[in-house]
Amino acid sequence: MTRSIEIVGGGLAGLGLGLGLRRAGADVTVFEAGSYPRHRVCGEFISGLGETTIARLGLQPLLADAQRLDEVEWYFGGRPTRRQRLPRPALAVSRYVLDARMAEAFTAAGGRLRTATRVEMGETPEGRVFATGRRRASPAWLGLKLHARGLPLTRALEFHLGDGAYVGLCPVEEGRTNVCGLFRQRPDLAAPRETVLAAYLRAAGLGALAARLDTAEVCPESRCAVAGVGFDRGATTGERMSLGDAFALIPPFTGNGMAMALQSAELAIDPLLAWARGESRWADTLRLVRRRLRRRFGCRLAAAELLHPFLHEPPRQRWLAATARAGILPLQPLYHLLH
Ligand SMILES: Cc1cc2nc3c(=O)[nH]c(=O)nc-3n(C[C@H](O)[C@H](O)[C@H](O)COP(=O)(O)OP(=O)(O)OC[C@H]3O[C@@H](n4cnc5c(N)ncnc54)[C@H](O)[C@@H]3O)c2cc1C
Known about the structure:
Elements: E1 5-8, H1 12-23, E2 28-31, E3 45-46, H2 51-56, H3 60-63, E4 67-76, E5 79-92, H4 95-108, E6 112-114, E7 128-130, E8 141-149, E9 157-162, E10 165-171, E11 176-184, H5 196-203, H6 207-214, E12 217-229, E13 241-242, H7 257-276, H8 282-312, H9 314-325, H10 331-338
Parallel strand pairs: 1-2, 1-7, 2-6, 4-9, 7-13
Antiparallel strand pairs: 3-5, 4-5, 8-11, 8-12, 9-10, 10-11
The chain binds flavin-adenine dinucleotide.
């Protein structure tokens, strides 16, 4: 191959793309502002990731021990309301483990990984791909997460709906449970780092869940937070090739953001290889990748954005709960629309 590819951002999209390109022999460098391993705000269940993507990116050995979760218990008003069997099992694995495994696999495959290196976002030379994650947005949502021991789950995956919030509980490694929520930011709520998640749970009317958390053993190093989470679409014009959340962040209730990051990497591999071999111009490569991303994710993103208020606004949640209890909520068609 005659041309090199640079990937800015070593999250799932960036490392997934790096792995896919290295498997085809491309010359690739990933620049990552942080380092590995690291905890990330994430529900840590991957929903809707197909075998083709796993195979194309060479992820089988990295996901081999991920737990397969095939049920979700939905909680409305603090009570279990509806159990849903997932059409395809979700994979549960912490970002602490997964990102580090992918980084190691990428370097083992001959990729160059530059950690602790933040790339200037203004420059967009040919061959540079941006997998830099979500962009800060307003009105602001806050993401909070921690791992806890001694927090047994009633079902494989728990999903709690609160006032301006929703929270997922998911089993990860070493008997830990990941507790991760998306909360409408409350400027009047001041709490220290150690208790901010419990405070937000109580403010959202999820006191019963906060009380369960009080009895569990929190892993202090796993606490993390992100502010300014928003769900706007990525650039469809301009000179930048953006993948993963940098293209668009799907509302997290779908559990599909990680799958989308990896799928977007998969969609970009062939056009980038053609460019690396000198067979296409960068402008055409950019257009082709964008077209593929829009085709694959357009409907999914629109459906998720439409449904998102039903997950966090109490009047719509009540409607959702009533239809779920009555057994008339079309959960399976909705799942397919969102994945
Ligand atoms: C509250 C919450 C819960 C979620 N729960 C789930 C879930 O349960 N399941 C699911 O599938 N998805 C979930 N998601 C979404 C999921 O976390 C993202 O979709 C996924 O992480 C996207 O991967 P990415 O590689 O695009 O971005 P990221 O994983 O964010 O990686 C981007 C990387 O780029 C680096 N970077 C940024 N700028 C630069 C720069 N200038 N130079 C160098 N490096 C840079 C960052 O350090 C980062 O490592 C959740 C999101 C939120 C907010």
